[in-house]
Design goal:
single chain; 26-stranded mixed sheet; 26 strands
């Protein structure tokens, strides 16, 4: 082989190497954008912000002063910003198409979380910080959150527990279940059942259109409690020692109470019946409890008791 031929082959090989390098770099970048697996120092009280079109979001609190992030997407890529103060992940589609995304994050207890999904599920547990989570058609579960808590879905089941703070819960056409709540609660659905149990609050509002409402919890003598539905039952289970003024109304259902229906001393107007409308006092009165339904029943139970006086 003469020198001219060898020179030509070397030039060709060099050119091939130069051409391959950018392609290899691009492939590496593409892999990094579709898959993340990283552990790094993360400050307690910082923010996590995650948004996906479909797939699963799982965020869990732990005692370590660091975050562990794993994320993958079938089609498209993930925009990621990872720092000791904030984690931001957003799934992006490829030419309008995207595959399922899976995001799993471990963060220090006290981290504030914001998570949203169009058609995927969201599960946030043990973070014990502020939480805002919502999905259009996936189930949403939040266990262990504080301060300001907002959880909502359109057609996915909503479950929440161990909440401490101002809580807002809402669905459109799915059930809403929450337990072990301390603090003000607002819950609403259109056609889903609402069940609130183990509640300790001075202000509760629960409203649905075509399903039942159940409340099991304490009654603060200075508190206010409002429960309403159009075509479902309202069932309240409250402590025997409760002190409250009740205002109950149903159009075609019945009203029943496990508490004696008594008048305020010296005030014969404390109880009034107009069709299916009733006002009466339990204990010494104080809290204001309002319950209304159009075609359902209203049932007032003492905790652990089912004997009722029907009207």
């Amino acid at each position: 082989m003469n020198s001219s031929t060898r020179f030509t082959m070397l030039v060709a090989a060099a050119a091939a190497t130069i051409a391959a390098a950018p392609a290899s770099a691009r492939a590496q970048r593409d892999r990094e954008r579709t898959r993340i697996d990283s552990t790094f120092a993360f400050d307690k009280g910082s923010w996590v912000d995650v948004s996906v079109a479909s797939g699963a979001i799982i965020i869990t609190g732990w005692t370590r002063p660091e975050a562990k992030v794993y994320a993958s997407i079938e089609r498209g890529w993930i925009d990621a910003q990872l720092s000791p103060h904030r984690i931001t992940l957003q799934a992006r589609s490829d030419r309008g198409r995207s595959g399922d995304t899976r995001i799993e994050i471990m963060v220090p207890i006290g981290t504030r979380v914001q998570a949203s999904s169009a058609s995927g599920s969201i599960r946030i547990t043990g973070t014990d910080g502020e939480v805002e989570a919502g999905s259009a058609s996936g189930a949403v579960e939040v266990i262990g959150a504080t301060d300001r808590i907002t959880v909502h879905s359109v057609s996915g089941k909503l479950h929440a527990a161990k909440l401490r703070g101002r809580t807002r819960l809402g669905t459109t056409s799915a059930t809403l279940e929450a337990e072990d709540i301390v603090g003000d609660v607002t819950a609403g659905t259109v056609s889903g059942r609402i069940t609130l149990t183990g509640v300790k609050s001075s202000h509760v509002s629960a409203e649905t259109v075509s399903a039942s409402v159940t409340y099991v919890g304490s009654i603060d003598p200075s508190g206010s409690y409002e429960f309403s539905t159009h075509s479902g039952n309202v069932h309240l289970e409250i402590p025997e020692s409760s002190a409250a003024d009740l205002f109950l109304e149903t159009f075609s259902g019945r009203i029943s109470s496990a508490f004696p229906i008594t008048l305020q001393p010296g005030d014969i107007s404390a109880m009034a019946r107009h069709g299916k409308k009733m006002e009466f006092t339990i204990g010494k009165g104080g809290a204001r409890i309002t319950a209304s339904t159009f075609s359902g029943n209203i049932i007032i139970d003492r905790g652990g008791h089912t004997d009722r006086e029907e009207n």
